[in-house]
Structures are given as structure tokens and as C-alpha cells.
Amino acid sequence: MDTIRFSSKLKSIVNLQAEEGSSYAIIHMENGVSIKAKALIGCDGVHSVVARWLGLTTPVNSGRWAVRGLAIFPEGHGLEVDSQQFVTIGKRAAFAALNDKEVYWFLVGQSSKGEDIPHDPETIKKEVISNFAKNFPTSYLRVVQHSDLSTVTWAPLLFRFPWDVILGNLSKGNITVAGDAMHPMTPDLGQGGCSALEDAVVLGRHIGNLIIKNKKLVAGDQVAEALERYVKERKWRVSMLIMGAYLAGWVQQDGSGWFMKFLRDSIFYRHFSSLMSKDRQYDCGKLPCVSSSNNELDNDPRKIY
To answer: Could you give the dihedral angle defined by the CA atoms of residues 144, 147, 151 and 155, in that order, rounded to the nearest 10 degrees?
Structure first.
């Protein structure tokens, strides 16, 4: 049934009112294929075609960019600490050991210093070592030097204003968005991917309850209402994460003067970060389940399949 289709890029979307008032989405792909869908969930990233169709504002540049990479040490990295962060005027870098052989690293800088770099991995790596991080400790430079070039990337840090998420059209009929398509945010809280997983659970709960009610997914107003409930549940949560991530990045990176050091070390790390840590323990609710014993839809949260 071609349930999963690879290398299929979305080109345009059309709403179609079908028989008996049921609403479908017609998805036109760049390869000429058209797909008829009872529900369309756009998970197509920061530059989402679905978000544009809904009328959401274009994500804006935060004024910062990030280089990321994965260092490989076949014989073991031998680091004395699992993670370490380095902050100077306009730049922030860190590494974190994933295991005894792999270390994730990043460097964040101001937009005026990096946009002209040719963005091939080898050039990016050289610029980090010889320019942006040249005054950082040798432990950090050693990690960057061992980077697997296939993992080295440069990208501007984009986000959507939180009020655009709160007030914007996050769904229309049987069409909505999730993940970065809905709430692109800077990576300073490490919650971008986590919030996308939250979206999936909440969306799955609302759609799943609808399927339980009808024994199948029925196109029409009920799908639209389920997506509206999903949007209502998510928009305030993700708006707070967008705002928290932006503020976290600003406090941690905006210079190394005495005031910013005080704000960062005495207030942010002691109070704000602990507050956000508690907020990360977010309860998405329980997913409805399908019983494998009798193929009947079941809403017992105690069952796991």
C-alpha cells in the first residue's frame, strides 16, 4: 500500500470537500504524485510547507548560528569530565561525552561572524579550530579535531515568536503541524526534539481516542475537532519553551562582563535552570492502546503493547 514513501517532497496542499461533507486533504508531491488524506500532520521542519499553507509566520533569525559535530575516538577519548562549557564574548561552546568513544560538541556565535563561511564540513572544522575557538582550552580543540566530517554542520538558529504560536492558525480543518513546523526554537534548553515527541504523544492521544470512538479514523468534523484539542493543549506549553530557550541562550552567551557573569552564574544557573529542569518533567498523558489478543481497540492505560 506504499504506507511509507521515501524521497517524497511536498509541493502543495488543497482542501477538498468530498461526499457527505467529509473533508480531505489532497497533497501534491514534487514527483507528480497526489495523495488523498483524512488528516495531514505537517512535520516538515523549520521551513514547513504545511505551516506556510496554514498562514503561520516565517521563523526569524535569533542573531546567532551554531556549529555541531560528533568526535570519534576509536581508542577512547579518556576525558576526565563528561561535559564542559566555555563562554566568552559572543561565543559559547561545549562538549559532552556520549560514551567512551564518542563526544558531541557545539559552538554558538553571533550571526555577523560566520555567515560568510563556505559551509562544507572540512572548512567549518578548520574555521572552528583556527578562528572561532582558537583561544579555547586544548581539551575542546582536541574534541573538534577528532570530528567525523559527515556530522559537522553549520546553521543559523531560527525560532518562531511565541505570540505567533499562541495567536496563529496552528490547525485548519483536518490539517495541522507538529515539531519544528509548529514551534521552531533555539537549542539552548535541549527541548526541540523532546517537545516534538510530546507533540506526537498528545496528537496520538487525541487521534487515538477518536479512533476508539468510531472504530476507525473517520474523515470530517471529528478529525478537525481532535486537531483543535491537540493545538489548544500544546500551544501554551511550546510557547513557554520557545521563550525559555531564547532567554537561556541570551543569558549564557551575551558577553563575559561582570553583570552578565552575575546574571548567568548567580541567577540563571542557580534558579532559572532548576525551574526549567522541573518543567522538563512534563506529563503528556497516556496513549490509548490496541489489544493484540482480540484486535479490539482498548482505552486501558495499564496495557502496554
So the answer is: 20
